[in-house]
């Protein structure tokens, strides 16, 4: 166990915030696999302040998910503080996180996301402003820098801690790298060293693609927890397998095709319940491709799933894969 402020986290495996993915449907699934801490997808501060209905719907948290870090994005300290105060007053979020690492140009044009990485002094003011506006822990999700010529991660860690930040999650890539190349775990270790004098925990993110990689990151960087993102897409088992491996040293087997398809059915049900059939099925298309990734003979099924319009159609397509796979095995 470890803590973020006064929030107790039961284990050292954390689900990363992923735009368009970590909505309440996906978070419920991952929580059942034992994640110690779950992040929401990022939510616009302006959307909250303007009371946009779609934005406010993103603030819903199921009690079974907790502890939850609700992530905000924005380019101004004052509006982020006001949005954080709203989150504190009207949601069950345990932690308020601020995105300082999103590489998307449409976010950076707002001076938000990774644009903050260029100005450690602005980051200090940001955390001083937001942390004094709320009582719940305020945390940061950063990258190493904008590009290789602007690497201010040590200064950023110090600014966050001195400004009142309660934890730092660091993705070991720059904004320019996007999701390419290898994550720099040595730089993550330097962030941990910079935050340690302040007693601020650090969560390592980047290339944690297996339980063994999670253990290596903890050992090599000294971080307090590991964050898993893209490796959990279509594979929430990695959460449980990693929690188990870190606790016991045992490596559990990968899920079977039957287990993957069964979980896809459950995910479809969650999405339809959350967003209605039309939107839920369309969103399920990408998740279906992730659940089917790496499975033998799944290419045609993935293609068909991308055209599904109803829950019944998506269910029949996925069930059809199991029938086809069984036929292949019997030959």
Strand and helix layout:
Blueprint: E1 2-4, E2 7-9, E3 13-15, H1 24-32, E4 37-39, E5 43-44, H2 45-49, H3 53-57, E6 68-73, H4 77-90, E7 95-100, H5 105-108, H6 120-131, E8 138-143, H7 153-163, E9 168-171, H8 185-195, E10 202-205, H9 211-221, E11 225-228, H10 237-248, H11 257-275, H12 277-292, H13 299-305, H14 311-330
Parallel strand pairs: 3-4, 3-11, 4-6, 5-6, 6-7, 7-8, 8-9, 9-10, 10-11
Antiparallel strand pairs: 1-2
Helix pairs in contact: 1-11, 4-6, 6-7, 7-8, 9-10, 11-12, 11-14, 12-13
Task: Give a structural overview.
By secondary structure, the chain is of the alpha/beta class. The chain has helices at residues 24-32, 45-49, 53-57, 77-90, 105-108, 120-131, 153-163, 185-195, 211-221, 237-248, 257-275, 277-292, 299-305, 311-330; strands at 2-4, 7-9, 13-15, 37-39, 43-44, 68-73, 95-100, 138-143, 168-171, 202-205, 225-228. Helix content is 47%, strand content 13%. Strands 3-4-6-7-8-9-10-11 form an eight-stranded parallel β-barrel, surrounded by seven helices. A two-stranded antiparallel sheet has the order 1-2. Strand 3 (13-15), helix 1 and strand 4 form a beta-alpha-beta unit. Helix 4 (77-90) runs parallel beside helix 6 (120-131) and helix 9 packs across helix 10.
